[in-house]
Design a protein that fits this description.
10 helices, three-stranded parallel beta sheet, Rossmann fold, alpha/beta, binds glutamic acid, 2 domains, 278 residues, 12 strands
Length: 278
């Protein structure tokens, strides 16, 4: 068994991160497997070396260890590019020049109600889908997945988390209507969370993805990409989210619950485990 914790170094780790990392590490340990760490720093406008250093420090303080060198997504652009090129060559991607405003205007044009949203926000209304495609894959435009071509069969994954245990099946119709043509390469990044996470879980031979329930709805995207790229599908374990007293889930800017703050206040790793109910 190989599990991983994949934080983005864009703020301090808080109790929710500690919970996720501890579950992933313990799951691997119990099975005699390996717990890995991955730094998800594709968003170079928000990632900071200080946060990365703090992640290593907090996780070590919690008693966790992981093999080195640590995989950092900022060093993986050639792998993401190769995956995009394969999807492009298979006719599954198209360039998109819409901005947020174009999308929300086009999406709310029909008769009734608010536009439909999916794991990536407003479902793309398809404005650029049928424009002529350049012969070469462009590097300076967003690239979207053409879901109508990509979703041919249901995607299935095995969930071991507390809420949806068993096989989770998503039909092509739902992939089209509830997820739609998501961006796989952002103009400013040359990749996207969905593409990078899929390519890297495979590169690290992850057998069990442990992460928060907030990513459950995005998982069919990752499983579909695995199929399109010929990669294996791991098992998934989406754990409950740690919430504050008001029931709101913790956010990066919620510094009050930063591990470093608890450490400075004199709490021990055992206290942290107790706080998150482990
Ligand atoms: N990097 C993501 C985050 O910090 C987690 C991605 C994942 O576990 O798949 O929220």
């Amino acid at each position: 068994m190989r599990t991983r914790f994949a934080p983005s170094p864009t703020g301090p780790l808080h109790l929710g991160h500690a919970y996720s990392a501890l579950i992933a590490a313990e799951k691997a340990k119990k099975a005699g497997g390996t717990f890995l760490l991955r730094i998800e720093d594709i968003d170079q406008s928000r990632a900071r070396p200080e946060w990365q250093a703090q992640i290593y420090d907090d996780l070590a303080w919690l008693g966790l260890g992981w093999p080195r060198p640590v995989l950092r997504q900022s060093e993986r652009m050639p792998a993401y590019h190769a995956a995009l090129q394969a999807l492009w060559d298979a006719g599954l991607l198209y360039p998109c020049t819409c901005n947020r405003r174009d999308i929300s205007e086009a999406a709310s044009a029909p008769q009734d109600g608010a536009p439909l949203t999916g794991p990536d926000g407003v479902i793309y209304p398809g404005t650029c889908r049928n424009k002529p495609r350049p012969t070469e894959m462009p590097h300076d435009m967003a690239l979207r997945l053409n879901m109508r071509i990509a979703a041919k069969e249901p995607v299935i994954f095995q969930e071991t988390g507390p809420k949806h245990q068993g096989n989770v099946i998503t039909t092509p119709e739902r992939l089209i209507s509830e997820i739609g043509d998501i961006v796989l390469s952002r103009r400013d990044m040359g990749t996207s969370y969905h593409l990078a996470v899929t390519v890297d879980d495979a590169a690290q031979d992850i057998t069990d993805v442990v992460r928060g329930a907030d990513l459950f709805e995005a998982t069919p995207i990752h499983v579909l990409l695995q199929r399109l790229l010929g990669l294996p599908t791991p098992r998934y374990h989406h754990h409950a989210l740690i919430r504050d007293e008001a029931g709101k889930r913790l956010a990066k800017r919620d510094d009050a619950r930063a591990i470093s703050k608890y450490r400075a206040d004199g709490l021990s790793p055992t206290d942290i485990r107790r706080l998150v109910g482990l």
